[in-house]
Design the sequence.
């Protein structure tokens, strides 16, 4: 991978929720040492169970860190027009200028982001007037109409109030709005969750259309592996605040290396096969009280003594990386030699 | 084996021409929405019957009528030969139990979870002493993969969604119901926990010979559970038959659309083609003729005028004009 292909990269990113509780502080390690390199012109997927930190990772990447969430360590670098910059080194003004024009964020439950007492077209107008100067109201409505038409949504929705639209339509309008200023990076947090299957497909279709039109980067967070298989180019699996595996989506599904990824993929029911599906035993760990060593070891059927003691580092196998002692023979050998 | 587990071909639940009409709008401009339109089906003990469909298809309204939360506009619900209005309430809740969608809403956050279990034991007089009650509760919790020690003294916030859903199922098992009505029990939980609950249903069906009315939009788990399936759309059963047959060879264009829209966890089988954006729910409900005609790729003139009959196609009932030459189920009966 050429460095110029990278639009977003992180270095040992750590973001924790620091909560004041009676008798001290409670630290929830939602993002705990994430290394990422996301390229231009790709749909990058982040998968994992609820409570694994994927939404927090998204917020941290978008530099949307509010208390009690704190950036503890590491940096997030974006590259824009051949220049690389640390997003946390920017001041508020600079950050605001980047939002929506360079990077956009569709939050989870985007159905409730609209002001319920104004029409969709007013939302568009508000949005445009705060980012573009010297446009008349008519010009802005015209832009909104054109944008809606290009994305294949019915123009009549501009005259509707949010409650008059179905959940799927609201979700699509939220995504369309995020793409309006042609951002280079769009973050979409669980855009298909709580939608019907047919509507889900419509939302995914829209995301794909946008990516094909703008040739930008879409970062898609969802727990639905079926959606990932359908849209993403590359995929990472998150567990307990860390990325435990990353590869091209096809590779992850064909050749999952981490035992957790294997459970995630093999537990999905498939049409044409009623054989018993077994999911990972036990419960995901609490991020406030992580197990020692590899966070998955209490649930892992292949756990070895080393897994309890030391956290595995990434093993790179070409474009495929995995953080598991099963695949880190060298690390294991070193451990045996030292103990 | 538990009591009352003997096999009989008597349906445990039969629904005949069940209809529910809601009115919407003001007094002058009123819309009449037939949320459930002459739905008929029957299910046996030891069988999973799936009511599948998207939100707003009438599946939850059907379940609410079966549970007695909603009064049907017309039609009959027959539980083990009993007409609905004849049976006393206590009989009903001992035979039929329900599990709902959101496990976090099922339990009061300020009350210990065990309280719900003891309350059920007390309400039905299932134990003579506390020790006996604990023993019974422990047995039911073990049936769902938990035990009393894990639950004792803890509040709902201390459990995950999957655990709460299993506790909710354990509570319903206390009375040894013959029928469990599960309304979207896995839609709020993660994929890995989803399978543990679906596997639990398989065990309850096989080991306790329970009937399970499984209401879901998740066709993949419906396929996995097997049994019978009825695919609903805007109040109508569009296709009904053995789940594996219906989902592998969907005959109705709506079932075909649903089946194709499920994202499969296989990057080699991505979605092909595009779908059209739906009319609003209300427009589809108010449609004369087939409710799916507005989106159907194989729509004919007759579809927009006349409601198709439910016809039998190789053991599967299909409500579609494409299969009109087949014998109508209604004619066969009369």
Sequence:
């Amino acid at each position: 991978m050429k460095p110029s292909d990278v639009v977003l990269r992180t270095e040992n990113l750590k973001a924790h929720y620091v909560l004041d509780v009676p008798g001290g502080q409670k630290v929830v390690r939602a993002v705990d040492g994430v290394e990422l390199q996301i390229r231009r012109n790709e749909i990058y997927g982040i998968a994992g169970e609820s409570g694994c930190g994927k939404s927090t990772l998204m917020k941290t990447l978008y530099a949307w860190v509010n208390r009690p969430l704190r950036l503890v360590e590491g940096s997030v670098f974006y590259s824009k027009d051949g220049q690389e910059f640390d997003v946390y080194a920017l001041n508020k003004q600079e950050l605001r200028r980047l939002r929506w024009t360079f990077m956009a964020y569709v939050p989870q439950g985007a159905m409730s982001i609209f002001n319920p007492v104004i029409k969709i077209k007013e939302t568009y107008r508000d949005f445009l007037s705060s980012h573009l100067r010297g446009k008349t109201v008519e010009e802005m409505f015209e832009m909104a109409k054109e944008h809606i038409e290009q994305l294949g949504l019915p123009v009549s929705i501009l005259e509707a109030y949010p409650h008059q639209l179905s959940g799927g339509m609201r979700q699509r309008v939220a995504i369309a709005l995020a793409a309006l200023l042609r951002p280079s990076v769009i973050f979409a947090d669980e855009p298909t969750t709580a939608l019907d299957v047919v509507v889900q497909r419509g939302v995914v279709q829209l995301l794909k259309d946008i990516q094909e039109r703008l040739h930008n980067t879409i970062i898609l967070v969802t727990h639905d592996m079926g959606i990932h298989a359908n849209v993403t180019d590359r995929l990472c699996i998150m567990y307990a605040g860390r990325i435990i595996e990353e590869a091209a989506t096809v590779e992850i599904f064909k050749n999952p290396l981490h035992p957790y990824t294997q459970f995630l993929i093999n537990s999905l029911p498939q049409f044409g096969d009623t054989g018993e599906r077994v999911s990972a035993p036990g419960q995901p760990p609490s991020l406030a009280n992580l197990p020692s060593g590899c966070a998955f070891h209490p649930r892992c059927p292949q756990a070895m003594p080393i897994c309890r003691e030391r956290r595995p580092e990434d093993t790179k196998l070409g474009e495929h990386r995995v953080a598991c002692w099963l695949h880190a023979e060298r690390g294991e050998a070193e451990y045996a030699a030292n103990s | 084996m538990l009591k009352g587990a003997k096999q009989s071909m008597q349906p445990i639940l039969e629904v005949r021409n069940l209809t529910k009409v809601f009115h919407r709008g003001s007094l002058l401009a009123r819309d009449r929405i037939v949320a459930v339109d002459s739905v008929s089906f029957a299910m046996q003990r030891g069988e999973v019957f799936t009511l599948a469909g998207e939100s707003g298809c009438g599946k939850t309204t059907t379940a609410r009528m079966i549970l007695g939360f909603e009064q049907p506009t017309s039609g009959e619900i027959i539980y083990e030969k009993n007409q609905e209005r004849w049976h006393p309430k206590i009989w009903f809740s001992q035979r039929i139990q329900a599990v709902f969608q959101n496990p976090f809403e099922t339990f009061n956050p300020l009350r210990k979870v065990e309280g719900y279990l003891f309350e059920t034991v007390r309400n039905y007089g299932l134990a003579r002493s506390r020790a006996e009650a604990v023993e019974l509760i422990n047995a039911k919790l073990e049936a769902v993969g938990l035990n009393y020690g894990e639950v004792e003294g803890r509040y709902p916030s201390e459990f995950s969604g999957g655990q709460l859903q299993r506790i909710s199922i354990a509570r319903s098992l206390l009375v040894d119901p013959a029928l469990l009505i599960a309304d979207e029990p896995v839609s709020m939980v993660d994929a890995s926990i989803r399978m543990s609950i679906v596997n639990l249903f398989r065990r309850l069906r096989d080991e306790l010979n329970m009937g399970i009315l499984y209401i879901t939009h998740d066709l993949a788990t419906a396929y996995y559970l097997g049994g019978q399936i009825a695919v609903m759309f805007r109040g109508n059963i569009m296709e009904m038959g053995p789940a594996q047959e219906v989902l592998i060879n969907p005959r109705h264009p709506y079932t075909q659309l649903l089946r194709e829209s499920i994202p499969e966890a296989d990057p080699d089988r991505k979605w092909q083609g595009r779908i059209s954006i739906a009319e609003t729910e209300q427009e589809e409900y108010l449609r004369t003729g087939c409710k799916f005609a507005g989106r159907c790729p194989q729509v004919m003139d007759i579809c927009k005028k006349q409601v198709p009959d439910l016809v039998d196609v190789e053991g599967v009932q299909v409500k579609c004009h494409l299969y009109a030459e087949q014998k109508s189920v209604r004619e066969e009966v009369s």
User: Anything to note?
Assistant: Chain B has 14 helices and twelve strands. The mean pLDDT of chain B is 85. The two ends of chain B are 40 Å apart (CA to CA).
